[in-house]
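R.M. (postdoc): so does anyone remember the format we settled on? I'll just put the structure tokens first.
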């Protein structure tokens, strides 16, 4: 069984720790959001309130609230009388996410060059070493999280740790593309090389070099989109597609 499937199966019978109803809905949303982003729930998968209620061991009310929140992020589409389905990836939202992320992170890298200290340099190098270990281990999800933590650390070095939340909130669709691209065996080595250059220029307080390296790294998304729309077309919405039409055919076996 593939690693991602093993992890999904291991968590399939997980139960939410009893808390206030609103908090339960937040937990359910976070778990489903993660499953969608990493591709365990591919586009057009039907999300049954009853099945999700059984999986998480909660009532259908927080399930319904979680699905509404996911719909607000355009991660699922709700069709009255039919049900809820994982939404395909919409490229307009991917590119909007990339724009937001590039704007914030390029500003951050310029500030980080001025502020970085010895402890932060050590933390960045440790992050790179950890990413290499995870790549060798073939752990896609943990590699993805390590990638996130390094970018968040740069925001922190810049003095704007809370701004990372704005990046996170803006990039759900972008993250779906990023994780899908991890299937390419050359992607993680490329990411590590780009991260290494960013850190090197940052450590040497090379403002222009660090900025150029960060921008090139983030714009790699465009090439990933070109490759994925040709190879994984089923994951993407048709140009001009929306949720106003009939519901999609549910993915079998989900």
């Amino acid at each position: 069984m593939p690693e991602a499937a093993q992890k999904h199966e291991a968590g399939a019978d997980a139960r939410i720790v009893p808390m206030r109803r609103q908090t339960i809905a937040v937990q359910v949303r976070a778990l489903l959001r993660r499953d969608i982003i990493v591709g365990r729930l591919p586009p057009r998968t039907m999300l049954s309130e009853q099945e999700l209620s059984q999986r998480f061991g909660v009532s259908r009310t927080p399930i319904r609230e979680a699905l509404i929140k996911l719909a607000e992020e355009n991660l699922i589409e709700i069709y009255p009388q039919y049900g809820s389905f994982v939404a395909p990836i919409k490229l307009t939202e991917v590119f909007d996410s990339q724009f937001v992320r590039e704007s914030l992170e390029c500003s951050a890298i310029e500030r980080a060059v001025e502020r970085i200290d010895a402890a932060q340099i050590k933390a960045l190098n440790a992050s790179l070493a950890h990413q290499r270990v995870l790549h060798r281990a073939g752990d896609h999800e943990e590699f993805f999280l390590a990638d996130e933590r390094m970018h968040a650390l740069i925001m922190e070095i810049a003095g704007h740790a809370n701004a990372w939340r704005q990046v996170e909130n803006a990039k759900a669709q972008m993250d779906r593309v990023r994780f899908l691209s991890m299937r390419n065996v050359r992607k993680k080595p490329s990411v590590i090389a780009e991260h290494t250059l960013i850190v090197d220029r940052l450590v040497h307080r090379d403002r222009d070099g660090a900025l150029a390296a960060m921008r090139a790294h983030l714009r790699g998304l465009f090439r990933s989109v070109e490759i994925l729309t040709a190879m994984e077309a089923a994951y993407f919405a048709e140009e001009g597609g929306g949720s106003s039409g009939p519901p999609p055919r549910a993915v079998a076996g989900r």
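R.M.: ...and that's the designed sequence above, right after the tokens. Also worth knowing: The chain has two domains: 7-88, 91-234. Confidence is low (pLDDT under 50) at residues 1-13.
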